[in-house]
Amino acid sequence: xxxxxxxxxxxxxxxxxxxxxxxxxxxxxxxxxxxxxxxxxxxxxxxxxxxxxx
Amino acid sequence: xxxxxxxxxxxxxxxxxxxxxxxxxxxxxxxxxxxxxxxxxxxxxxxxxxxxxxxxxxxxxxxxxxxxxxxxxxxxxxxxxxxxxxxxxxxxxxxxxxxxxxxxxxxxxxxxxxxxxxxxxxxxxxxxxxxxxxxxxxxxxxxxxxxxxxxxxxxxxxxxxxxxxxxxxxxxxxxxxxxxxxxxxxxxxxxxxxxxxxxxxxxxxxxxxxxxxxxxxxxxxxxxxxxxxxxxxxxxxxxxxxxxxxxxxxxxxxxxxxxxxxxxxxxxxxxxxxxxxxxxxxxxxxxxxxxxxxxxxxxxxxxxxxxxxxxxxxxxxxxxxxxxxxxxxxxxxxxxxxxxxxxxxxxxxxxxxxxxxxxxxxxxxxxxxxxxxxxxxxxxxxxxxxxxxxxxxxxxxxxxxxxxxxxxxxxxxxxxxxxxxxxxxxxxxxxxxxxxxxxxxxxxxxxxxxxxxxxxxxxxxxxxxxxxxxxxxxxxxxxxxxxxxxxxxxxxxxxxxxxxxxxxxxxxxxxxxxxxxxxxxxxxxxxxxxxxxxxxxxxxxxxxxxxxxxxxxxxxxxxxxxxxxxxxxxxxxxxxxxxx
Lengths: 54, 580
Prior knowledge:
Radius of gyration of chain B: 24 Å
Strand content of chain A: under 5%
Number of helices of chain B: 24
Largest sheet of chain B: 3 strands, antiparallel
Strand content of chain B: under 5%
Distance between the termini of chain B: 9 Å
Largest sheet of chain A: none
Shape of chain A: rod-shaped
Structural class of chain A: mainly alpha
Oligomer: heterodimer
Distance between the termini of chain A: 64 Å
Helix content of chain A: 55-70%
Order of helices and strands of chain B: HHHHHHHHHHEEHEHHHHHHHHHHHHH
Order of helices and strands of chain A: HH
Helix content of chain B: over 70%
């Protein structure tokens, strides 16, 4: 691996990793997001299908 | 929408981001991208790749998210309904049918490949995959997928695809039956982080391989990375007899290979060693075509999935950040994980010959040999193919939802009935693809015409609809509603002018090359195999495959035509359709 190869690899991997980390950080720290993160136990609108199908 | 008809919806923003990124992350991230980057030289390819990401990837992705959410707010979740209600133009509504056809047709063969991944994972765990030669690996693959004869893929032993296909089919429909939040979102919430952790474990294994065979010192992980990422390439070239032109004999990686090549070149005047610079590689049109194509297919844009997934968002949900997050998750998996695992691993054990190959050849022929030779390869082989399996499930799930939404909307039936109907349609189509397994002809034909050709058309339609039919100002207003930060203003110009032009140029040259067989670099004409199969040396399986595509398209168009709700979508003040 040449020096150029190392630079290209580190810049490419660093760019996408930084962007990904920043996006996930912003998503998780946006106000109002937390209370929705653990909602899987709650009844969801999917349940309306049972009514519709019955 | 009446209040009694509650909508399916996502439970959390991170859930929809993981679902969309799960749809995008698939076999292409771990097999196709590394192969292309290595083929073209990492530096040059990455420049073209990031350029395409900014011009095509982000533009269409944001357009799809915005169009999808806006359509969902008007009571439509299917691509024809959304395109119809937002433009009021029947022509665009019927073009929107492609947003249903594409995922449904791709599912028919993708689930077959998904079954291969699961089958390989199980066979690694069972210790059945210990190959010493490429022939052994190829023979196992051929037998497993039934490549030798039509109908031979329907075997039900552990070394055949049958049971695995049944298992993944049931898994997909079980998850999709559970609905948006309890099925797709819940699965992706666990599968995507698991996929990233598995990839990181494999990555650490690959990067610590060192030089497994001391008799071939050039075959090591560092040179494997170099083969993929070095910006300049070193070629051994040969001068043709009676000609002044030089042709590439082989690529040289590693100090031992360089010394040997220098010795050969010094003793033979018809040989030379040449360094191919990054700029010279950038002049290769094929590199741009491949980079744009990879961005295009990797991000699942023009697929009909994002537009459908986004339609389940709420009005104030942020589509700008969500779109960026989902695409960045895909890029992370592709560049930072896929880019460091597959090709370096294959190079370390098999050299350049093993690392350079097609997506399926690399994945199901070369890599099993790599894991067979790797310390603890049985375990890591299982992990790798299970990783591919997870990536494939999150993608195939997303291919079902657009069809389900369409059937619900066009036939006014509930989710469970539409799941059952789509199950029947896709089971028939999948049975067709699996039965005609000889040379994977049906799979290959549908992949080309639907998975490549029609995707270009739908993506181009979507970006033109966003910039020119809905109108850029209105489109950006729709996209920026509820956004933490707006789409950068430069993207107004890009989405209206640059992206459609770039797409049309790429599509033109792609069609010229892949359909009409015109080689832009050499100026030679040679019809592609897909055209030969239809017109020059007719192949009945290729013809049946196109008939299948035509039948499904006709069925979807018919439903669009007779559905009152979809009909109402293009009427100015629909009474039976979505609410304003």
